[in-house]
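Q: what sequence does this backbone want?
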């Protein structure tokens, strides 16, 4: 069991691809700022890559007090071996209390591997995070039918990590009371990004820690990065979404066509779909909206029911 007194701070693994930060980074740093204020500690971004120190300051504008930049040509492209080693080495040396990772393709690969090496727990695909018990109770009152006022709660400062379970049919809240750091991967699009503050960005401290990484540590080599020609749907950033469900089964092609026409008429919107539609293969998974799909924040959302 970990000595909790040794662990301090909320860390965010800040994913970059080809030298550009991901929007998920800003969401997680914004959420980390809220948690750190309740824990009375700092927010630290952990940025890995090759020659990426120039993009680190931007993270401060969303709430990071400092950014640890681990810079190496061996970190230019993501590989599990290199990134997992560096992340675990940094955590073992600096001992953050909380480590947040975006539930992207990279984060879903990196998170479990780091948790296993660090001998701690990981709650995957979280959609809500709390430290303060009263705030957690308020969250439950708006999202469940439980008698919250007569329930007994752990009054510690454990991170309460909420995620969908059983295909989204229920929400489970998980804590990690015996081990540190408390780790979770967080679904992109669910945390609200704070307004950018240039003064905070300018004040953000950039740290370049010493770390060990050699070619012998990396068992795979990225020969090239090929971008898929297939155009994916940007549901998370869409202002208008027209969504279809199982009701289009009577005439799938016509149902999708009508949804596309309505989305276009509403100002260049995109078409979303339920899990039943994507499971049936009528639309690809990048169209799926919901607990087991993508969390969206459109200005207009139209759900079509077919009879």
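A:
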């Amino acid at each position: 069991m970990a000595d909790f007194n040794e662990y301090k701070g909320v860390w965010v693994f800040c994913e970059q691809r080809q030298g550009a930060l991901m929007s998920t980074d800003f969401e997680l740093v914004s959420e980390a700022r809220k948690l750190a204020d309740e824990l009375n500690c700092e927010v630290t971004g952990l940025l890995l890559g090759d020659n990426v120190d120039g993009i680190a300051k931007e993270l401060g504008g969303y709430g990071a007090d400092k950014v640890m930049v681990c810079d190496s040509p061996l970190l230019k492209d993501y590989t599990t071996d290199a990134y997992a080693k560096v992340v675990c080495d940094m955590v073992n040396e600096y001992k953050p209390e909380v480590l947040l990772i975006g539930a992207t393709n990279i984060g879903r690969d990196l998170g479990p591997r780091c948790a296993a090496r660090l001998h701690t727990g990981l709650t995957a695909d979280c959609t809500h995070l709390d430290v303060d018990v009263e705030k957690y109770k308020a969250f439950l009152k708006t999202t469940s039918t439980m008698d919250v006022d007569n329930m007994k709660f752990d009054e510690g400062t454990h991170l309460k990590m909420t995620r969908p379970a059983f295909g989204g049919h229920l929400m489970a809240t998980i804590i990690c009371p015996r081990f540190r750091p408390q780790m979770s991967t967080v679904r992109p699009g669910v945390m609200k990004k704070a307004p950018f503050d240039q003064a905070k960005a300018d004040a953000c401290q950039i740290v370049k820690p010493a770390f060990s990484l050699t070619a012998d540590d990396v068992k795979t080599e990225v020969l090239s990065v090929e971008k898929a020609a297939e155009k994916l749907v940007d549901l998370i950033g869409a202002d208008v979404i027209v969504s279809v469900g199982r009701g289009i089964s009577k005439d799938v092609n016509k149902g999708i066509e009508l949804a596309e026409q309505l989305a276009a008429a509403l100002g260049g919107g995109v078409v979303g779909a339920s899990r039943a539609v994507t499971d049936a293969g009528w639309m690809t998974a990048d169209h799926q909206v919901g607990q087991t799909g993508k969390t969206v924040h459109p200005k207009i959302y139209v759900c079509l029911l077919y009879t």
